[in-house]
# Entry
Amino acid sequence: MFSYKSEQNSSDPVLNIGTDMKDYINFMFPEKSFKEKEKPILYLIKSCEYYDLSERESIESINKVLGDKSISRRTYYNYKKKLYDSQAFGLLKNSCYNTIGVKLFILDSILDDWEHTKRADKLIGQQFPKRKQVLEDEEKQKEELNNVMNRAEANINKLKEMETSQSRIDSTLPSNHTTREEFVKCGKEFCLQCPHGPYYYAYWKDSTTKKIKKKYLGVIDPRQ
Ligand SMILES: [Zn+2]
# Structure
């Protein structure tokens, strides 16, 4: 997909394409070394994502394939977490482009064996003869695009709001405050998004009470 050699002399100071591009791709899509015995389940989970199955449908259909080697809900989540544990998904999380389509694209780059994929798709797909895979489903695609548009619009509005609230924050916070970035665990037993954040808070010592005070500043780093 990328041609390294032809751009060896690139003078781009930010990204020296050629040597750095390979590091960058490895960073975004680390080569996963899954154990051989884990692979069948991981490919089945990927297929469930392709058919946009619910959690329950996924576990049930995977277990129909696995027979007496069936897995528990917890095991299913552990495998899923393994699959979604990459930098690319982390960055995607708060982006307006966080769609099933993009997720599937990344999953395909992590589990890229075509034979495994085809077999798993068949085993899952035949259990849901009336469903289409997300990428072949026009209605689903339209819905996804609408979501992207809505999220992009919400992001733009949020930024506009930020600009106006920034001046308000600056005038209400004492000059001795420090800004901190924090992540929060929601406490749900099965959560693929944990920890949530970052959230930004201002901390300062109240000059009369000598107590530490804290104020929520939002989801965008106000120091930027
Ligand atoms: Zn959570």
User: Anything to note?
Assistant: Residues 5-137 form one domain. Residues 186, 188, 191, 193-194, 196 surround zinc ion (CB under 6 Å). Confidence is low (pLDDT under 50) at residues 1-12. The chain is about 50% helix and 10% strand.
